[in-house]
Amino acid sequence: MTIVAERPVTATRPLSVKGAQRLRGQQIAGNGPGGRVLGRGEDIPVSADASARLGVLFAEYADGLVHYARRKLLNRGTPAGVAAHLAEEITQEAWVEIARTGAKDLLAPDAASRYSADETRWMLWRRVKDRILAHYKRASSYETSVDWEDRTTCAVLCPLLEEQLVARCQIGALPGYLATMLAELPEAEREALLTLAYAVPSDRAAELLHELGISGKQHKLIARAVLLLLIANPELSGPRVAVASLPAWERRAMVAVTPAQRELLLRLDDIPRQVLLLHAAEGLNSVEIAARLDVARSRVLSLVSGCAALVAEVGA
What we know:
Layout: H1 17-24, H2 48-75, H3 80-101, H4 111-114, H5 117-140, H6 151-168, H7 176-183, H8 187-197, H9 202-211, H10 218-232, H11 248-254, H12 259-265, H13 270-282, H14 286-293, H15 297-313
């Protein structure tokens, strides 16, 4: 009897890309129209339907994507003011990429019925996340420390860096002693003042402060920050107002405050000085002060709620 041994069954090796192409007799589909592979930097003309679909997506998800990008950037330790601007730029890059490549998933004719709102949002989030990763990858590629002690390097880079900082944020152009003054502010007041310096819109500034765990309204914190700077650094204020030039009621009210409070109030502008003086000397609230000075209560409220306690502590 002859025994025939069976050949052991081996695992099938996966075909290579070229092997798969030869097997199918056609090119593997790319990510372009009709499965064509896109060339480097190639743009895809957007059809009328795809353009309309892109407009619908932008109107519905644009703000949410900016908030998502800003939260991701803040989680990476990006400063709040920088994150606000960078989130806008990265989100715009994601939208441009969708339009240029004619995204077959998001801009497909049946995309509205094929994908749910959650699936669409996830795909958009993924594109923004990829752009954030690409941004940091570009920033870290071939990164080496700059030798600022080298005169040639400093002569070339310092003017460029200074111009960039001045164009981006007035805080970046502050001399060293002013930056030190700002750093000594409490965190809440400092961050609120930075949102003003970076020209962050008020609604988004409120969101940024909330994400940083800071309570309180932006205008109130800014008023406190300015007054704290003036209290700690008298040289930042303008010339001291002469008591003789004040109206009669202000001169009478100045007698009721302490000398230290008087010196501080005389270095303030007219409205802040009058508001805080009426509160400190006569104990008026914001409604009464607004009626007394014939100004909107909104101009008075942040000063009374944010700065009155600071004035009371001066010289106490």
